[in-house]
Amino acid sequence: MSEKLSPIEAIKTKSDGLRGTLKESIDLDNHTGNVRPDDETLVKFHGMYVQDDRDRRAERAEKKLDKLYSFMIRLRIPGGAINAEQWLATHDISEQYGTGTLKITTRQTVQLHGLLKHQLRPTIQAFNVAKLDSIAACGDVNRNVIASSHPQLSPLHNEIHAYADKISTLLLPKTQSYYEVFIDGEKIYERSAEADPLYEDRYLPRKFKIAIAIPPSNDIDVFANDIGLIAVIENNQLKGFNIAVGGGLATTHGNPNTYARLGTIIGFTDSEEKTLKAVYEILTVQRDFGNRIDRKFSRLKYTVDKMSVEGFKKELEQRIGFDLLPEQPYTFTERNDRYGWQQNHEGKWFYTLFVEHGVIKPYQKQFLYELALLKISNFIFSGNQNLILGEIRENDKSKVDALLEKHQIDKNDSALRKNSMACVALPTCPLALAEAQRYLPELVTKIEPILEKYQLQNEEISIRMTGCPNGCGRPYVAELGFIGTGPGQYNFMLGGDRYGERLNTLYKEKQTEAQILTEVDQLLERYTKEKNENETFGDFAFRTIINPN
Q: How far, in Å, CA of 282 to CA of 209, rounded?
């Protein structure tokens, strides 16, 4: 007897192009702040998650009240760049709906939390006016395509960055249900015109992520994605892309068959046509061979390992009709953002604003609003949850400086803090086992004196934390990684490299804050005494502790 498909598979195929009963859930079900059970799955494909305030669950249960349901909306912004008008719209929408807080994600977009069900439609309609949408920002489809963010990286930045939008457009679902349910309520055209040769009516077995790296920067952790494209540049010309497949970081506590995996480079494409064809058909291979029975094993990394890298590559080459070329040389020498003022080859200025864990603080939000009113800058979200103010002309730079001074934006943050990353976790993420975004700033504050004790305060050590093993804050590719196992407890991961090309390894299980600080103190003391010249902390930990032989 064949194994049963995951229940999610039936929800997708019966959804009438992701429509389900969403209209009824939103318009008729006034007894709850939630949508109907099947619609909880479908709403993700429209860029939304159902959440509730876990801090208030017990209080509401005691009063026999429904959970305090709300929604998170995540925008689809390929490459992470928007203009000043779109920033103003996003600011205004966040003030009118939800909690008022804007959260920059690790995938170069923004999320709004705390939206009530009756606010979904007006919120999405307001974004639509600003030419922004949340289509396919979540769900079992290709999600927001990210790309190395700083235009100073290469004179070819704009040319390479444009691939994010091309790929995002190529891989969008064909259904018009987003517009029908949330924009104007009308059927746009006959359903037969919605035939979707890529997603069919099954969509993908699980979410799918694509990243484009522009060496020397790996700011988007290219190998942590289902598809990683690495731009190869020679003599100021884009020669093409190395293609890596099978990256993904999510694991499940207590299930040794789940694992984090870095992408494997399977070849090189030397034209736009070949690159887009290869990307498209990688999705069709995953659509046809991916696990639809157990969603814990549904990501592309498991498909690649099941088929073998060579088997996957052979299937892909049959579908694209050409052989991939051999991998081309490249080098990563940085992963952090280029903070402060930088100038590109055209003489335009860019200012990178540090936004701790992507949570835009009220004084930063006011600064950004006043800047957007001047219409002298665009806004680029980085893969490190920061914000680059870009395309600023020389004669406008002083206006930005004046606003930076007025709002006291420049803070003397430590190198460790600027290289920290955390997922949202509690109170809104239903998967979180421990704090992350609310706690990591405190932990960094307690580690900073230890760094100073060993004169390491300028070391660019990466530290990342997530509230569960899903890895949204990419802790598995940090030099210091912390993964929540329960309230106040974290698995301590060690030995990742500085540039995102090596996974870290479990060092200590279920560590409390006191244990973490003791371990960090001992590790840093050893590092100062035993490191090789110019050896990074991650390489030292790997050489001496994780892989001493």
A: 12
